Amino acid sequence: MKHIVKIMVLLVAISACWIGLLQTSIIPRSHTWLLPIYFVISLGCYGLLMVGVGLMNFPTCPQEALLRDCASGVECFMKQYDVSEKKAIEEIQKMVANGWKDINEDCMRPTNAPMLLLQHIVNLVRVTDVVYGDDDDAYTIPLSLKDYVTLLYVEQVPMCE
């Protein structure tokens, strides 16, 4: 259940970006119905889902692993392909890496969509990677986000003039 909530939050955040960018008139209102179709194609549905879902397939904290309220992606992969846990984790990590490659390739191609819109969606996936990418869950255990917050707000990089 928690994995589904994480995926839904990511989709809601992407939708919020679309709404915010529509309000700033970056996209003509007559083309708004094309947005969901366009982004699934332009960013590569496989890439976006592999990164988002792949990162969320691991238990985010020891308590979640103990609850076992639903099978994780690793357990499903192990059962479907009859492999060990180590091999399943390696394969899911390969899927995540391939998803990042797909996203980067799709963003490097020239498109008719405003790059600002693409950047917002890619940045949401990047945040997902920062928060859920390591072995620990930075949302549940915020101490692991300390270095990122320090770099952003305490030790800011001076801007060139």
From TrEMBL:
One of its GO terms (cellular component) is dolichol-phosphate-mannose synthase complex. Residues 68-102 form the Terpene synthase metal-binding domain. It holds the Pfam family Terpene_synth_C. The keyword Transmembrane helix applies. Coiled coil: none annotated. Its main location: endoplasmic reticulum. The chain crosses the membrane at residues 7-27, 33-58. The keyword Transit peptide does not apply. One of its GO terms (molecular function) is magnesium ion binding. InterPro entries: DPM3, Terpene_synthase_metal-bd. Pathway: Protein modification; protein glycosylation. One of its GO terms (biological process) is GPI anchor biosynthetic process. It is a multi-pass membrane protein. Keywords: Endoplasmic reticulum, Membrane, Transmembrane, Transmembrane helix. It comes from the Eukaryota. It is found in: Endoplasmic reticulum membrane. Component of the dolichol-phosphate mannose (DPM) synthase complex. Stabilizer subunit of the dolichol-phosphate mannose (DPM) synthase complex; tethers catalytic subunit to the ER. Belongs to the DPM3 family. PANTHER family: DOLICHOL-PHOSPHATE MANNOSYLTRANSFERASE SUBUNIT 3 (PTHR16433). This is Dolichol-phosphate mannosyltransferase subunit 3. It comes from Populus tomentosa.
